[in-house]
Specification:
It is a single chain. This protein is an all-alpha fold. The protein has one domain. α1 runs parallel beside α3, α2 packs antiparallel against α3 and α5 packs antiparallel against α6.
Amino acid sequence: MVEKELANPAPLGLAGFALTTTILSLYNAKLLPAAGVSVVVPIAFAYGGLAQMVAGMWEMKSGNTFGYVAFFTYGAFWVAYALLVWSLGAGLLSLGAGSAAGDAIGIFLAMFGVFTFYMWIASFKTNWTLFVVFLLLWITFFVLAIGNFNSSSSTVQAGGYLGILTAISAFYGSAAQVVNSTFGRNVLPLGGKPIKD
């Protein structure tokens, strides 16, 4: 009996990341009113979190360490973010006033920036699309971290715009893989390997 080839989980992981990142980034960039930011919580749990973690587990099953670590970690990031926002809104958690809250969130974002930076280095051996996603993402994390450390709404706003660019790149990567797989040929190029041996 011939075993059927499994579907590629990467487009799901990239889509979950891109959609959730777009919505939060629109709020960070002040393109949507701040009062509606709570809409990110259920999306972060379900699509940013759960869908990416599932994609990560399937990447592990296929032997793709890069995909597994990336999707599972960013899925966990979105679950943690959703829990943080939900806990604050429900009054179950307090980060303190003023800079204490900014510092705590700044450290959270900076540590994901560190993780994303070394994943960006690993992306040198993937394709140009992922290279661009990870490049924009580590810059986004550090800009948002600085904005929170300094309580600078204009820096957080700049991070929001960077997040939108990151999400567009991730959407493209997801779309390219789905379209190319469906058509059975390269319709949307992913760009090959960015750095050769």
